[in-house]
Amino acid sequence: MDGARAVLATMHGKERVIAPLAARFLGLDVVVAEGLDTDAFGTFSRDVQRIGTPREAARAKIAAAFRHHPEARVGLASEGSFGPHPSLPFAALDRELVVMIDRERGLELVGHHATMATNFAHQVVTGVDAGLAFAAKAGFPAHGVIVMSVLDGAPAPQLALFKAVETETDLAEVLARTIALTGAAHIETDMRAHRNPKRMRAIKRAMIDLIRRSRSFCPACARPGFAMTGRASGLPCAWCSSPTPLARAEVWTCEGCGHCEERPVSAASADPMHCEECNP
Question: Which pLDDT belongs to residue 89?
Fold first, then answer.
C-alpha cells in the first residue's frame, strides 16, 4: 500500500501513536479527519451512549471519515472498552481495538490489545478533599479526570459535567460547584486518549497487533489477518494422560474464508497438579 492515502477518525490525538506505525510498516499516508466529531459515536462520560459493539462503532467512525476524505483508500479508527477483569473482578481491564478498512481490496483488519495497566476508576465524593485525593491517586494532572453530578446515587452528566479540568485549582472549583448541586460529585478517570497516557500506550499496542495480523496470511485463501482466535483445552496429564483444562493447541481462524486450524502448544504434557484425576 505504498503511499496510499489513509484517513484516521480521531479528535483525541490518536494519530500520535497510529500514524507513525501505519506509515512505517504499512506504507500509508495518514491524514486526520479534521472536524469529525467522534464523540457523536459514544463517550466514556455517558453523555452520548455508544450504539453497537466497539467494532461497529469503529466502523461507523471510518465511514464518517471517508465522507470527509472521499479520496482515501484506507480508513482507520480505534475504540476502547473498560470494565472489571472477567477472572479478577476487583481488577480493571482495558480492551482496545484498531480497525483498518481497505475499500480497494474489500479488506477489514482488526488489531487487539487487552491490559490491566489502566487507571480506570471512579468514586462518589461529598467533599473537595476526597475528590482531590482521588485525582492525585489517578495521576492527575498528567492523567485527566472528569467530574459530574450525582442523582439518586447514580452519575448524572445531564445536570453537570466537567471534562476540561487542567489544574488542581480548577478541579477544586468544579468539585465544589458540583457538590453544591446535590450534595455529592462523581469523579472518574478521563479515559479519552489525549488525556490518558496509559490508554494511549494500549492503543499503540493494538496498532502493532494490527500490523502483525496484516503480515499473517491464511494458508487456504492467502487473505491477510490469519490470527489466533482461541485455545483448545485438553493438554494431557504427565502422569495419567487424562485431559486437563490447560490448552493443548491454539486455534487460528481466517475471517475471510473461515478456514480454521489447530496449532499444538510447545508443552507436551501438563503438570499433574492441573489434573482432576491425579489431583482431585
Answer: 79
